[in-house]
Amino acid sequence: MGGWIYTIAFYVCAALLVASALGVLLLRNLFHAGLSLIAALFTMAALFILLGAEFVAGIQVLIYVGAIAVLILFAVMLTQRIAEEKVKRYTRALLPGLAVALALVIVMILVTTGLTGYGFTPFATEDTVGDIGKALLSTYVLPLEVISLLLLGALVGAIVLARKEEEK
Amino acid sequence: MHALFGWLNEKWTALIEWLGLPDFIVPAGQMVFDGICVAGFIAVLVLFLIWLERKISGHAQDRFGPMRVGWHGCIQTVADAIKLIQKEDIVPARADRWVYNVAPFVAFAPTVIAFVVIPFGDGVIVKDLNIGILYLFAITSFAVIAIVMGGWASNNKYALLGAFRSAAQLVSYEVPLVLSVLGVLMLAGTMRMGGIVEAQSSMWFIVYQPLGFLIYFVAATAEVNRTPFDIPEAEQELVAGFNVEYSGMKFAMFFLAEFANMFLVAAIATTLFLGGWKGPFQPYIPGEVWFLVKALGLTALIQVFRWTYPRLRVDQLMSFAWKLLLPLAFLNIIVTGLILVLR
To answer: Which residue of B has its CA nearest to A70?
Structure first.
């Protein structure tokens, strides 16, 4: 198969990704927006596969679609009448949100064009899973542990916050 | 099996060359053929499994089960399927039509593509992905989304309650499920389904990983919503749970996915713990037969569970997953890791 099939697949996935991401923002019904989010995350996994990163794609679907998106849907369903059109969908934090998005776009452009010194070198290996595992437990063991601690802190914090509400 | 597929492949390639069609039709045709094989296998399998379920249920209750259509009712399911196809397709008036109509397909499609990485025999596997087992867990996590979609879109309180329970249960049991197979992956050193079976040439992994197998099997029974973990569709409380409003072919799609999923978890257990297609008298009894015997045996075991254990309450269900299965799964990983390092 020629490279053009990959090109077509990439543009189809990219178009679907942008469309479903817009759906998350623009759909009036929050439940539909949640489903749109699932579609966006799933097409992103498809893009990872096109890039040869099957492991990242698998994890993406397992964690984001299988757990996080489901919890979002769960929360939407538990909240009464949240799917109605009267519900406000935007917060007042529009300006900070825009600022963060803009900063992210700038960083992405800098990194992908290699203007910063940090440019990445894409590489493909046969044994992606093994390489990722070795890298995580040798070169990147400190960041991994720091992230674990951060997540643990978030977990404990969430429980503490939920408990407080209960006592009132 | 292998020889037959090889022969078909050769003839197909020759035919395309003879017709002078472009090259990419060869792999495209292979994909279509693979798809038809998987879908056909699932259809026949589910017809058999539903019959088996009714027979086991019948005999467990000291009656015969279906007896009228065919020998011991063996084509009863075919008759039922024809009946379901003829039924009127009813959509509740205040349902969310779009989500309601899509949900059965979201339930069925992941099941079909999950069968792609099941190794039925030596080389009899559609695609031996190098993330095999991870792919399976990722793709089967879509089941809960289908249930939530169906339950929410039906606009029915029983369906919604079923969807709630299902979301809570499936997300909880997925954690011990994934952790329980890590011991096997550490022993095999690969996620490739074929590689895991090859690693069990001398000894089945159930011998080294008895705890892992137990945790996997219990969590998998919960993942496919079978008794004693069937509160998402508890008939006595919720009528039928998330699929109560569905009728005709859409109901059949949910049903098909459920039974195919039950075989799927049994097939994964066979591959990971029971040596897959490996078995004695290998050249005389083909590996495919061994695989089907083991996987169908485990499926029948899940069906027997239904008549052996009472249903768990919601709080029991949650504490069982988080306070018993999860710590045991971690213990299993730690002990396996220690043994591998110290050996």
So the answer is: B145
